[in-house]
Specification:
about 25% helix; Purple Acid Phosphatase, chain A, domain 2; about 300 residues
Length: about 300
C-alpha cells in the first residue's frame, strides 16, 4: 500500500483573476505530481483551504478532478473558519461517513492498517484561537477504536491523522496555539495501544518534523505546508516495513516556479511565509523507516 500525505494547502480565493489563474496552474501541477506516484490514498491534513468557504472547497475539488485525484480531507482550523462543520461535511473524510453528527472524524481499514481521522479544529475562531482540541465524545470514541484494534489479530499499524500536533512532540509544538490543548488526554488514550505500531500524522505548524518513538512507542510525523516547504510525504507500507519519504516539488519550469511564488505570496490573510531552510526539516525530519516485525 502507498499513500500520500499533504500538509496545509491553504487553497485560497483571490480577488485578482491573475492570481486565481496562477493558483489553478500551481495546484493542478501539484496534484498531477501526486497522482503520478499512483497512491492508494491521498490525505490532506487540514487547512486544506484558507477560509473554509464552499467556493474554495468546490474549486479545489474541480482542480483535483482534472488530475483524477480524490482527497480525503481532515479538518483544520482554517477549514472551519467560515461555516459550521455539518455545512462542510460533504467535502471531508473522503468516502467515509463521520462517526459523529456534529464533528468530522472517522476510521477505516486498508490492508493491514487501521486509519483514524481526527477532528481537532474549533469552529469560527481561527483568528483568535488556532489551537486544537479533541472533544470528550471523540476521546471516548478513540479509546474504543484502540480497544477494538488491540483485540484484532492481523492489523499491524494504527495510524492516526489530525491537523494539530500533540504538545512538545514535533517542531514548534510547544508554542501557544500550535498544539492540541488537551494533548495529555489524547496521549493517555494512545498509551492503551498494546500491540502494533502507533503513528500520528499532523500538520498545522507548516514544517517537516519527525519525533519518536516516545516512551509509549509512538512516532509523531509532522508534514510541512507545500507552499512553505515545497514538498509532501509519501508512505509505503509493506508486510515488513513502514517507510516515509519526503518528495520535493518539481518546480524546475520557470513558469511553474512563478505560479508557485504568486500563489503563496498573495494569499489574502492567514498564511505566513517562512524560510525554506528552517521549515523543510533536517534529513532526519524527511525520511523514516520502521521495521514492522519489531515490537
Amino acid at each position: 500500500m502507498r499513500f500520500v500525505v499533504l500538509g496545509d494547502l491553504h487553497f485560497s480565493s483571490y480577488s485578482s483573476p491573475t492570481h486565481r489563474m496562477a493558483r489553478n496552474r500551481f495546484f493542478k501541477a501539484l496534484f498531477t505530481q501526486v497522482v503520478k506516484l499512483q497512491p492508494d490514498l491521498i490525505f490532506a491534513l487540514g487547512d486544506t483551504t484558507n477560509r473554509g468557504t464552499i467556493e474554495e472547497l468546490s474549486e479545489q475539488d474541480e482542480l483535483a478532478a482534472k488530475s483524477d485525484l480524490r482527497l480525503s480531507r481532515i479538518t483544520g482550523n482554517h477549514d472551519t473558519d467560515s461555516l459550521e462543520k455539518p455545512e462542510i461535511a460533504s467535502f471531508f473524510l473522503g468516502d467515509h461517513p463521520s462517526a459523529s453528527p456534529s464533528e468530522l472524524y472517522t476510521s477505516f481499514d486498508h490492508g493491514a492498517t487501521h486509519f483514524v481521522l481526527l477532528d481537532t479544529s474549533r469552529v469560527k475562531v481561527s483568528e483568535v484561537d488556532w489551537s486544537g482540541f479533541v472533544s470528550d465524545d471523540q476521546l471516548t470514541w478513540l479509546k474504543e477504536e484502540i480497544a477494538r484494534f488491540n483485540a484484532e489479530t492481523e492489523s499491524k499499524n494504527f495510524i492516526v491523522l489530525g491537523h494539530h500536533p500533540l504538545y512538545d512532540t514535533t517542531h514548534r509544538s510547544i508554542k501557544e496555539g500550535l498544539n492540541i490543548t488537551n494533548s495529555q488526554a489524547v496521549q493517555d488514550i494512545f498509551a492503551t495501544l498494546v500491540r502494533g505500531h502507533g503513528i500520528y500524522f499532523s500538520g498545522h505548524n507548516h514544517s517537516n518534523s519527525i519525533f519518536g518513538p516516545d516512551s509509549l512507542g509512538w512516532h509523531y510525523l509532522q508534514v510541512g505546508a507545500p507552499l512553505n516547504c515545497q514538498s509532501f510525504q509519501v508512505v509505503t507500507v509493506t508486510q515488513d516495513s513502514f517507510e516515509l519519504e519526503t518528495i520535493d516539488l518539481d518546480l524546475s519550469e520557470p513558469e511553474l516556479r512563478a505560479d508557485f511564488e504568486t500563489t503563496r505570496c498573495n494569499i489574502e490573510g492567514g498564511f505566513k511565509l517562512y524560510p525554506l531552510e528552517i521549515f523543510r526539516g533536517t534529513p532526519a525530519d524527511r525520511k523514516l523507516c520502521i521495521k514492522l516485525n519489531q515490537t
